[in-house]
Amino acid sequence: MRSHLGLPPLLFLLMAAPMTLADDKPETKTISVSGRGKIAAAPDVADINIGVVTQGETAREALSANTEKMAELHKTLKEHGIAAKDVQTTNINVSPRYSQPQPQPPGQPPREFTPRIVGYDVTNTVNVTAREISKLGEVLDAVVTAGANQMYGISFRFDAPEALLRDARKKAMADARDKAELLAGEAGVVVGPPISIVDQDASQPPPPRPMMARMMMAKSDAVPIAAGEQELSVTVHVIYELQLPKQ
Known about the structure:
The chain has 247 residues and is an alpha+beta fold.
């Protein structure tokens, strides 16, 4: 007697047996959790965007005045310990200024008005990285005295966050393990080794949105700067094997 595959019955059973055993292999039970680790520390770097705006009757006059003030600004930054690599030009703009219509007396018909160029504005801004936050107030005071008349916000960050991120990851893994053991204990099983670990990108709070602020051209006390603390956070997604408790 032969099977429908044309093979002897015994040989057919021997071939089918491993497939049956493989199908009967117990499924691995797992638990998936997310762990989060956070580290708070004082930032050690500040980024500020400062600029000089000058005016003149001609574009050349406005540009010359701006160039002179910017040269003094760069000199001042260097004198206060800001390295050349930490000063980067971000914007240079030359734009005309137009005459504006005069208000008409009540009841008078509007006059025809044709704008004309009455002068030029030149804006030159640089991004400055200050690596000594304790001296940042003195730097800001000095650049205002040197001719800077605009500041477009300030933001703080970590220059080398790797060590902080390492500690945050340790906390994230410990948090994931604690969660897994709590849930497993309530279910009457124990947590085994991790099967999968996914490290989500670390995150920092977004820097404050830049806001333009006019700076008075006058000598004053050092500007008070409060860097506060910033938080680094890391999230890990871990899948653990679940096992029956040992008898």
